[in-house]
Design brief:
Blueprint lengths: L1 H23 L4 H15 L5 H24 L3 H34 L3 H11 L4 H14 L7 H28 L5 H32 L3 H22 L6 H15 L1 H28 L10 H22 L7 H10 L5 H6 L2 H4 L5 H30 L3
Helix pairs in contact: 1-2, 1-11, 2-11, 3-6, 3-9, 3-10, 3-11, 4-5, 4-7, 4-12, 5-7, 5-16, 6-7, 6-16, 7-8, 8-9, 8-10, 9-10, 9-11, 10-11, 12-13, 12-16, 13-16
Keywords: Membrane, Transmembrane, Transmembrane helix
Membrane topology: Multi-pass membrane protein
Subcellular location: Membrane
Length: 392
């Protein structure tokens, strides 16, 4: 037990220090935190493996907090304005990138079709760990608010991962002989979104009504946070395919800020403090899953595939934005914001290898390479371009 606590203490203190050092160099501190997590676990080997097993819980807690904060920043009129584009952003970029990686993996890496599909849709997911906090920061600063650009990207990204995971599950099922087919898994996407939205609304209303009777801000923060955490635990523990808890958690924040605004004001401070701690654990734990030594043999070929897939993804973003009132600069920002990968890739990279998939080592190496390339590019790109490309 002591080793586990010491490991978490190392990750937290080291992540804070390295994050601040990197921030002084005018880079996003999350890059320093991810790098420290990698250094501490992969190279220094000072993190207890048992701590990493519990790390998934901490990552989910941090994601829950930042998604609640994100939901609290979305207004009803903004959703009406960007709803269509958000839906298209959740479907088109991930689909075209996944198919592009799949095609290139067959032609360049020589992977069989099913393994290429597994790889394609591990890589294709955008990273909520990178994108969501960045968009929350833009909302606080008022950048892109006039056209609800951060809100559009937040909503699109929350469902983007569902598409990628549904397709990943389909191809894994085909390989293992347990799949009901791609169509069956695709049907889970709208159903899981609808179920997540309904449950999110019910939880928000329940929390709002209870909070009317119990005025303590600490209680209200624990109540809302605890209910949201419960949703996430239920989905991840029971692997529920028909429930998108990430979207549901954002809906909790959305309903509270639009229909129980006083409650949103009461819990925002507590959630902000929780995120300041949770962010360190989220990014350092993402870093612990990244082993750069695995990508050595495929670095050049793999990098070419990743960059081509990013170009295809960017085209998908631009297609999704057709018909919106965004100008060229704002469309370019949306392309940049949709580049980073980290959360899904670090979580899913090792699964094919663990399940005995032929080519699992290659799939893991490519997934890790995609994080190494895109997480810094996306995080730095968002930070450097936001003030130049978005209006206040």
């Amino acid at each position: 037990m002591l080793n586990i606590l010491v490991s978490f203490l190392i990750l937290f203190i080291g992540g804070v220090i390295v994050g601040k050092l990197v921030e002084k160099l005018h880079f996003p501190k999350l890059i320093g935190m991810i790098a420290f997590g990698c250094l501490a676990n992969v190279y220094l080997k000072i993190i207890d493996p048992v701590a990493l097993e519990f790390g998934g819980i901490l990552k989910n807690l941090a994601l829950v907090v930042v998604l609640l904060i994100a939901g609290l920043g979305i207004r009803k009129k903004q959703i009406k304005k960007v709803g269509r584009a958000a839906v298209l952003l959740s479907l088109i970029p991930v689909s075209v990138e996944g198919l592009a990686v799949m095609f290139l993996s067959i032609k360049v890496l020589g992977l069989p079709t099913i393994q290429a599909g597994i790889l394609g849709f591990i890589i294709a997911a955008v990273s909520p760990a990178v994108l969501v906090p960045a968009m929350v920061d833009l909302i606080k600063r008022g950048l892109g608010e006039k056209k609800a650009i951060p809100q559009m990207l937040l909503t699109g990204a929350s469902a983007d991962d569902s598409v990628a995971i549904a397709m990943f599950t389909s191809f894994m099922g085909m390989y293992l002989g347990t799949s009901g087919g791609i169509l069956k898994n695709l049907i889970t996407i709208p159903i899981s979104a609808a179920v997540g939205i309904v449950i999110g609304i019910l939880v928000a209303v329940m929390a709002g009504e209870i909070s009317k009777k119990i005025k303590s801000e600490i209680f209200q923060t624990i109540l809302v946070g605890g209910m949201a955490v419960g949703m996430r635990i239920i989905e991840t523990t029971y692997h529920l395919r028909y429930f998108n808890s990430l979207l549901g958690i954002m809906v909790i924040g959305y309903v509270i800020t639009n229909y129980y605004e006083w409650l949103g004001n009461n819990i925002m401070d507590g959630l902000g403090k929780a995120w300041s701690v949770g962010a360190v654990f989220l990014f350092t734990l993402v870093g612990t899953a990244i082993d750069p030594s695995l990508v050595g043999s495929i670095f050049y070929t793999g990098s070419m595939i990743v960059f081509i897939s990013l170009i295809v993804r960017s085209m998908g973003v631009l297609i999704a934005l057709i018909g919106t009132d965004l100008n060229l600069k704002e469309r370019l920002f949306c392309v940049i914001a949709y580049l980073p990968k980290a959360t899904v890739q670090s979580a899913k990279a090792g699964i094919p290898l663990q399940m005995g998939v032929v080519g699992g080592e290659l799939i893991q190496a490519m997934a890790i390479l995609s994080v190494i390339i895109t997480a810094p590019i996306g995080a730095i790109g968002i930070r450097l371009s936001a003030d130049k490309l978005l209006e206040k």
